[in-house]
Amino acid sequence: MKALAARRHDRRAPVVLLLLALLLTGALYAVLSPTSADAAPAAATADQVETGEKLFQANCATCHGPDATGRDDVPSLVGVGAASVDFQVGTGRMPMQMNGPQAPAKPAQFDEEQIAALAAFVAALGPGPAVPTAEQVDPALGDPANGMALFRTNCAMCHNAIGAGGALSQGKWAPNLWEVTPTHVYEAMVTGPQSMPVFNEATLTPDEKRDIIAFLDLQGEGAPGGLDLGSLGPVSEGLWAWVVGMGLLIGAAVWIGARSS
Amino acid sequence: MTTTTAPTGGGKAAAATADYLDQRTGIGTAVKEFARKIFPDHWSFLLGEIALYSFVTLLISGVFLTMFFVPSMAEVHYEGPWATMNGVEMSEAYASTLRLSFEVTGGLLMRQIHHWAALIFMAAIVTHMMRVFFTGAFRKPRELNWVVGFVLMILGLAAGFTGYSLPDDVLSGNGLRITDGVVRAVPILGSYLSYFIFGGEFPGHDVIPRLFTLHILVVPGLILALIALHLFFVVLHKHTQYPGSGRTNANVVGYPLFPIYVAKAGGYFFVVFGIIALMGATMSINPVWNYGPYDPSPVSAGAQPDWYMLFLEGSLRLMPGQTEYVLFGPDGWTLSLNVLIPAMIVPGILFSLLALYPFLEAFATGDKREHHLLDRPRNRPFRTAFGVSVLVAFFILVLAGANDLIATHFQMSLNDITWVFRILFFVGPWAAFVVTKRICLGLQRKDRELVLHGHETGQIVRFASGEYIEVHKPLDAHERWLRVQHDAIRPIEIAPAEDSRGVRRQGYRLDRMRQRISQVFYEDRVEPVTPTELAASHSHGEHDALGSDQEKAPAQLLAEGAPTGGGRRLRSQDETDPDTRNT
């Protein structure tokens, strides 16, 4: 008994226990948390549409109207499709917090189930683009070199050469694309949210859209040459040359000049 | 030193080698002359050295790059480790830049060192130029060296521009496209010049090889030759020094080149090289693989030139586009004022002012003397204010060149920013001029106040009569010298238009113009304290006892003075003892 008690007081016991507890928590989380990312979008059920309508009346109808047909400066949602809802609500752009030049992305207000219900309700209003399948947006299946060529001719003039974002007129902007999920990128191309034009299948085929997603997937993970300085081009390089380069060099000059005199 | 100890083996060998060389070349005299050359000590005198050393860094890294870069616009298909470029059609110049970056050992590091060194080179030239300008180091006999330095800056721009365009990526191609547009905006000659430069319709197949020759041969050759001339002038004129006790127009107070500056300047080279190498190793610059091979159709957001060309970009961005006219009917020729004004006339005015300023100031001052003592910027309010306003104009153009990044990073409207900068471009330099001039005059008045009344000590003394005074500690001789040593420059006086017999004097009109310019320069001024004023303030603290005729000689030779307060001498100190200064 005494030997057992002595062994129980091993110095390493708390660490081992902590590790085990962490592992258990992680395993439980992995089992219990909802796994919907890889699930193909299921066909909308009548139940979903009903839930969606309730959510819509409570959260969206103030601006878009009880029948979702919109009014002055507020677009009608008839025919925008599930893809548009999934993008706007999934990236937190809708519901809008306040009026402004553009609705900014923010943490999503609804969970995935609610977004799917809303999407089902809006899709039921009229035919429109659906949420893409996982295969349609899988970066591993695309060709990044072709994606870059397409990105350069279609997207880079607003979103910057590798998607770091850029300015538009009157306070609007094209956002950074590095943290946007492939599904949302695809939906944005299909639905053309806010200032963005629609890239339909005649402009960019689904395969070409996937190539662009494959290109974007490689961006924003650091540069081969060191710190990427925001990937903003020569302005940020010039700023750093003055701040870091000239700052250090003048500092060294002051130090050398201060010696001996 | 070593003369008293027995020479070592190495020492003997060095002495023998030196003697061998001296007997055959007579180099000993030159070495002796140079080794004993005195240079004054100040950190701001090292700014030009940053430019020199970053140029050396450029040469070293540039030679490495030429070993691998192929200046050709022939079309190839890339096969290599960079996934987003695989199989893409591109020019050999672009492909060799990718190979240099991803496949040549140390290639990317050398490219980044080269590019950072170029940015630092231009930044150092500009900073050095500011130091020379604001301290008046360009005055006689150094006006020509100012011009040499100015040409070096222009050549630096040319070197940067030609090198920036070489990789033939989309971003640098956009820059070339703007160049083409600017060239075409030249009245009458435009399209001929454009065809001449690009060997046909833009972009053609000739421009990269041509830029390469300019970039690695012509421009660096000219820069090297002018650097030699620039440094020769420094040795010939001797280095300027900051004013201070013991420093005059006729001497140089400092340390000999050997060993002090050989160690300092030699060591500083490694500091400069080291910092640039550190930047090249840790910070990505000009990642051409992000931009893609050049194709005249796409432009990406955030397309800007390197910082030293950004003012030109900003100037073009600010100009309203409506100022394009077609003269002589619908089939006449186009006058593109929307390009001509921002890309040629505005930079032309700013650069001409910069190049010609020493001559303008000499004309206004009528000063033919040599100057080896630098000015404190506050003592020349017009010059300082003028320099600051030109800098503000450049800075506003630079910010305008980055207007899209300002818009996204500070969440403002691009259109509003552009309008604010359009107004600021005219108002900003003027406001900066007025404010800087007032600050300079204020600082001069502060100097006068200090010289006349001394430092405030915070000690309040009450006399038996009930009177309170604050004790002021007078400046010591060193402090006072610094504040009274400069000349008071007054607007020049000219002979009247007609002589006593009413005959018109020749050259009066030129003199009158000169007087007007001189008045603009020197009408508002605060003159340094004269010995009489100083003596008056020390004796009884009242200035109105002074005669109406002011003494012209400054107070620098007056070594008297004792602590004063309300006109009373309170205690004395040894003012030349540095330990008691500012206590």
UniProtKB/TrEMBL annotation, chain A:
Its main location: membrane. The keyword Protein biosynthesis does not apply. The chain crosses the membrane at residues 239-258. Gene3D superfamilies: Cytochrome c-like domain. It is found in: Cell membrane. Residues 1-39 form the signal peptide. Its EC number is 7.1.1.8. It catalyses: a quinol + 2 Fe(III)-[cytochrome c](out) = a quinone + 2 Fe(II)-[cytochrome c](out) + 2 H(+)(out). Residues 47-126, 142-220 form the Cytochrome c domain. PANTHER family: CBB3-TYPE CYTOCHROME C OXIDASE SUBUNIT FIXP, CYTOCHROME BC1 COMPLEX CYTOCHROME C SUBUNIT. This is Cytochrome bc1 complex cytochrome c subunit. The lineage of its organism: Bacteria, Bacillati, Actinomycetota, Actinomycetes, Micrococcales.
Automatic annotation (TrEMBL), chain B:
Residues 539-552, 571-583 have a biased composition (Basic and acidic residues). It is a multi-pass membrane protein. It is found in: Membrane. InterPro entries: Cyt_b/b6_C, Cyt_b/b6_N, Cytb/b6-like_sf, Di-haem_cyt_TM. Its cofactor is heme. Coiled coil: none annotated. Residues 244-442 form the Cytochrome b/b6 C-terminal region profile domain. Gene3D superfamilies: Cytochrome Bc1 Complex, Chain C. Its EC number is 7.1.1.8. Keywords: Electron transport, Heme, Iron, Membrane, Metal-binding, Transmembrane, Transmembrane helix, Transport. Residues 535-583 are annotated as: Disordered. The chain crosses the membrane at residues 46-70, 113-134, 146-166, 212-236, 268-289, 339-360, 381-402, 417-436. Residues 17-243 form the Cytochrome b/b6 N-terminal region profile domain. It catalyses: a quinol + 2 Fe(III)-[cytochrome c](out) = a quinone + 2 Fe(II)-[cytochrome c](out) + 2 H(+)(out). PANTHER family: CYTOCHROME B. This is Cytochrome bc1 complex cytochrome b subunit. It comes from Cellulomonas phragmiteti.
